[in-house]
């Protein structure tokens, strides 16, 4: 994984510079999402690793599947990845690009884990409170973990807020031991 991130970093930086220069961070982010999704597909992965399929044919196939709306820079980016045999690191390229984009736009990633599904109103209220506390726009992802018993855990950067019943019980148990 770390090796893939190292390999992906210069490509993510190049994509970011192209996108920023064109004022197209959003479209590039969407394009990289589609590329990463396609590159992770087992059938596409078989094509990527097929030595009988030349670079031109692979580019034609890959762009034909995911790049109907790609601009010339995005198509050229795909070709460079293919020529350098780097399509397999597209998920890492996408992740690094999104990190850089969020940093540029002042957006923080927030992972919310809830014991129960959150309705839209509760999520909106929680997001607004967190954005006020962290003084930043948040890109929120939500998952459900019934093991929390109740409440939520929130991770934003290095900050972890544990407002779960499981966390409170663990704190009480630790306090009783002391």
Which key features would you list for this structure?
178 residues; alpha+beta; 8 helices
Textual characterization of the structure:
With 178 residues, the protein is α+β, with helices and mostly antiparallel strands. It has helices at 2-22, 25-40, 42-48, 55-66, 72-83, 90-105, 120-134, 165-177, and strands at 107-114, 137-144, 151-156, 159-164. A four-stranded mixed beta sheet has the order 2-1-3-4. Strand 1, helix 7 and strand 2 form a beta-alpha-beta unit. The chain is elongated. The relative contact order is 0.12. The mean pLDDT is 93.
Topology:
Blueprint: H1 2-22, H2 25-40, H3 42-48, H4 55-66, H5 72-83, H6 90-105, E1 107-114, H7 120-134, E2 137-144, E3 151-156, E4 159-164, H8 165-177
Parallel strand pairs: 1-2
Antiparallel strand pairs: 1-3, 3-4
**Average of per-residue pLDDT values:** 93
Radius of gyration, Cα only, in angstroms?
Answer: 21 Å
The count of helical stretches stands at 8
- Tell me, briefly, the overall form: elongated
The secondary-structure element order is HHHHHHEHEEEH
Q: Give the strand tally.
A: 4
Please outline what is shown here.
Helix content is 63%, strand content 16%. With 178 residues, the protein is of the alpha+beta class.
């Amino acid at each position: 994984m770390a090796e893939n991130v190292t390999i992906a970093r210069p490509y993510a930086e190049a994509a970011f510079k192209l996108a920023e220069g064109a004022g197209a961070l959003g479209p590039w982010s969407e394009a990289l999402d589609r590329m990463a999704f396609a590159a992770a597909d087992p059938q596409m992965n078989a094509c990527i690793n097929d030595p009988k399929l030349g670079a031109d044919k692979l580019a034609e196939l890959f762009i034909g599947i995911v790049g109907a709306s790609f601009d010339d820079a995005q198509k050229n980016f795909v070709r460079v990845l293919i020529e350098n045999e780097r399509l397999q690191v597209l998920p890492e390229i996408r992740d690094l690009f999104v990190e850089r984009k969020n940093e540029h736009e002042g957006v923080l990633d927030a992972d919310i884990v809830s014991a129960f599904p959150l309705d839209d109103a509760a999520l909106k209220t929680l997001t607004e409170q967190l954005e006020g506390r962290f003084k930043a726009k948040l890109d929120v992802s939500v998952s459900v973990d019934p093991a929390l018993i109740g409440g939520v855990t929130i991770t934003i950067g290095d900050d972890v807020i544990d407002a779960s019943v499981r966390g409170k019980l663990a704190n009480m148990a630790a306090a009783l031991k002391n």
